[in-house]
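Entry — protein

Goal — fold tokens:
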Amino acid sequence: TNSVSIHFYISNNIYKSESILFSKAFWNADVSNIIFSENSYNPDTGTHIIDLDYSNTNIKPLAVVRKIEEVGGTVMASVTGGVRFIINRNIVTSALKDSLIEAVKTLNSVRRRRMYFQESDLIILENNQGTISVNKVTLANKIQDKIT
């Protein structure tokens, strides 16, 4: 079959390095020194309660609270160097979808801008065993830009 399976973990302490909720991409920030622990998860509501320990960083408490709110979470409790917050899986999956859509747009944009030679020029090149001698101006005029 022509199919691909990709597994995404919203949150899972076993697969922490693969978890979207604990990733640099989700937070749009360096989270390498932050410890995330899932306190609880309700599969019926999709609600994650996360304990976040930032005591090994220089991050200010207000910045942590703002970032949690920015990504769609709600702070439940705050202690020195840590915070507990709640976030719904729909917020995380929505952010993932947006990120994937943006990545595809970027990929398509790069592909559209790719420089190329017209097929007739490639046939000439092929008929000459892959070599052809032209001056710089002629070469520059033969290179085409797909975006124009």
